[in-house]
Amino acid sequence: MDGIKLSFPPESPPLSVIVALSLSAFPVTIDSSAAATTVPTFVFSDGRKLSGTTVLLRYVGRSANTLSDFYGNNAFDSSQIDEWVDYASVFSSGSEFENACGRVDKYLESRTFLVGHSLSIADVAIWSALAGTGQRWESLRKSKKYQSLVRWFNSILDEYSELLNKVLATYVKKTSGKPVAAPKSKDSQQALKGDAQDKGKPEVDLPEAEIGKVRLRFAPEPSGYLHIGHAKAALLNKYFAERYQGEVIVRFDDTNPAKESNEFVDNLVKDIGTLGIKYEKVTYTSDYFPELMDMAEKLMREGKAYVDDTPREQMQKERMDGIDSKCRNHSVDENLKLWKEMIAGSERGLQCCVRGKFNMQDPNKAMRDPVYYRCNPMSHHRIGDKYKIYPTYDFACPFVDSLEGITHALRSSEYHDRNAQYFKVLEDMGLRQVQLYEFSRLNLVFTLLSKRKLLWFVQTGLVDGWDDPRFPTVQGIVRRGLKIEALIQFILEQGASKNLNLMEWDKLWSINKRIIDPVCPRHTAVVAERRVLFTLTDGPDEPFVRMIPKHKKFEGAGEKATTFTKSIWIEEADASVISVGEEVTLMDWGNAIVKEISKDEEGRVTALSGVLNLQGSVKTTKLKLTWLPDTNELVNLTLTEFDYLITKKKLEDDDEVADFVNPNTKKETLALGDSNMRNLKCGDVIQLERKGYFRCDVPFVKSSKPIVLFSIPDGRAAK
């Protein structure tokens, strides 16, 4: 893509193409002196040309390497994108402008992006068409007429603010809405660069990758649920497969029957689907057990492997000290005899393992005769008691990778010292080599990603299961209130970096807030304990109901019925800071003046009385109070907050997890909620005014059973 020049009429810069080039960090040179050019044109280094705004935009969409799904990841999405790209021209028609705004506004009521779950050239085309109208669109942005459209427009502008503001300042004249002539200085090139490279897509290439010929695999061990660390590996496989028009295989590395189960397989498949991973097929390492056994025997016959009955602790010491095993020079016949004992699972066989014959003095200890096979008489979750021996990961993984046609195996950098071993195993087997690509393991503060340690929490009953909202599993963080879209953005922003970082959760929850805040409904809750009754002496003698928006900036959230009564409930924390004669604002109602405050013997406020002052200005009051009507329609709530499971930022390998267990990880607060919350469904995300964001875990069933809401972190520093 090097050597491309963009030329266009100076008075008519193609804004959507320039924006797409900017977002994708697409290498291009702008020729702003091409006065004779009548349409936007790409001129390639070999003299070929492409012309027309939509043609160029689609070319950038297809060619951009830094933005995932920029032109969709399947034929249907790409076709939808084409529709929106073509539709963008309607905004330039003066008479149709507002009709077009109305159509897109309605379409975006329940969507973050126009197509799919990430930014595409469809968004670029419509966004640029609006921005290009200058003052006309700016006036509408300030009104409340097209709230979903404005939300969408602003979210894109916020996400890429520095870059887009440069483009707008360079190419759009706000007063008239007409494009300005392209500048002749280097500023035009700088406007294309900005910080697009930092906007979170992998920036490196797979070595020796060819378009259409890349085959990857995501190979989890079915010994636990998918967690956020696995999600990084899965999404990077997805990204590279789409980028190189290749495919992904899901393979279960089921070689350890002591840890694995069908429950884990089923939930891993479920979680992979939740992440939106499209895979070619599902395979199992156990599918290849016969071939793996044949290969082990072949290597023994060739003198490249041997059977060792050295006790495990002694074997580990010999490997550390670089001492050859006494079994290393067994004859082929002796090795095959013991191999048969292993296959039979006999008492003698249980004492043995198969090892590769490498170099016991190699400085890289991973190359000191690694174990290939072990005896294990346990039943396998998938194939029962057919086998008494099982291959190790180090033996099975390169074999199956090569056999399944994997071109690139993505592995976290913790395997770096075993890369040479991987290549040596394939060399001894005489199989096709596979490219290894490393990325850094995702490490988060106060977070366990070891399945062994997570299993310990499950087995000790310190959590409710693998989907506990305190767990870093995909099911756990989704239950906590994280949107998968936020997780995908977060992972891709890390890219394929090899740098090892201990990351805070704040960044992830901040991304999540940007997604949920513009659309989630607002409700009201009052902590039940020591709540205070506030009597408005001139309040309504009979309760009345008024319909108000659930979200003042997003009509798509719908409306809620709010009851207004003479007596209302407020929280003790609010009541305790109010003074006699003070004017306060009752949210969604108006101002009131406190006339009397009653307290108990301990000085706690027990009741308030006052009068309404609905003509008062909310700008002059210090306290803005949430409140609930004194009716029997209120619902009972349990507001649940969570903390980290461990007290140390990063556990070392030799740390005992039991020594760092946080004794206080769950806090439940009883509260009352507005009657509209009876309609919440499990999984609904809401904002409780002045309390934060919550996800409904247990919806309303009956009055005696509270609705359970889980607090969703918002990315701000912990209290």
TrEMBL record:
Annotated compartments: Cytoplasm
Any one annotated GO CC term: cytosol
PROSITE patterns membership: AA_TRNA_LIGASE_I
Basic and acidic residues bias: start-end ranges: 195-204
EC number per UniProt: 6.1.1.17
Keyword annotations from UniProtKB, A to Z: Aminoacyl-tRNA synthetase, ATP-binding, Cytoplasm, Ligase, Nucleotide-binding, Protein biosynthesis
Residue numbers spanned by region Disordered: 178-204
Name the UniProt record assigns to this protein: glutamate--tRNA ligase
Domain tRNA synthetases class I (E and Q) anti-codon binding: 624-697
GO MF annotation terms: ATP binding; glutamate-tRNA ligase activity
Any GO BP annotation: glutamyl-tRNA aminoacylation
Major place of residence: cytoplasm
Family: Belongs to the class-I aminoacyl-tRNA synthetase family. Glutamate--tRNA ligase type 2 subfamily.
Coiled-coil spans in chain: none
Record-annotated Glutathione S-transferase C-terminal domain positions: 101-156
Keyword Cytoplasm: yes
InterPro entries referenced in this protein's UniProt entry, alphabetically: aa-tRNA-synth_I_CS, Gln/Glu-tRNA_Ligase, Glu-tRNA-synth_arc/euk, Glu/Gln-tRNA-synth_Ib_cat-dom, Glu/Gln-tRNA-synth_Ib_codon-bd, GST_C, tRNA-synt_1c_C2
Residues annotated as domain Glutamyl/glutaminyl-tRNA synthetase class Ib anti-codon binding: 520-609
Catalytic activity line of the entry: tRNA(Glu) + L-glutamate + ATP = L-glutamyl-tRNA(Glu) + AMP + diphosphate
Glutamyl/glutaminyl-tRNA synthetase class Ib catalytic domain boundaries: 213-516
